[in-house]
């Protein structure tokens, strides 16, 4: 069974984006990446030698960091809001 269903994606986009179909805004992308990062982190806790997943996790963290930097430059208030709602350290 897939951990990230279409319904879960729509829920994330609806909660953090402008609408359920808002897949392109930085906030919705950051929320999606954060959900995937938490899932992969839990997977790696029980599968320590899954290096393919470890590499995918590092790539996702880098992508999320790039989006956060972009949002910080474009609109600091939106950046602060997404950091606060997702409980990210920065």
UniProtKB/TrEMBL annotation:
Keywords: Ribonucleoprotein, Ribosomal protein, RNA-binding, rRNA-binding
Keyword field contains RNA-binding: yes
InterPro entries referenced in this protein's UniProt entry, alphabetically: Ribosomal_uS15, Ribosomal_uS15_bac-type, uS15_NS1_RNA-bd_sf
Pfam families for the chain: Ribosomal_S15
GO CC, alphabetical: cytosolic small ribosomal subunit
Molecular function in Gene Ontology: rRNA binding; structural constituent of ribosome
GO biological process, one term: translation
Keyword Ribosomal protein set for record: yes
Oligomeric and partner information: Part of the 30S ribosomal subunit. Forms a bridge to the 50S subunit in the 70S ribosome, contacting the 23S rRNA.
Function: One of the primary rRNA binding proteins, it binds directly to 16S rRNA where it helps nucleate assembly of the platform of the 30S subunit by binding and bridging several RNA helices of the 16S rRNA. Forms an intersubunit bridge (bridge B4) with the 23S rRNA of the 50S subunit in the ribosome.
Name of this protein: Small ribosomal subunit protein uS15
Protein source organism: Alistipes timonensis JC136
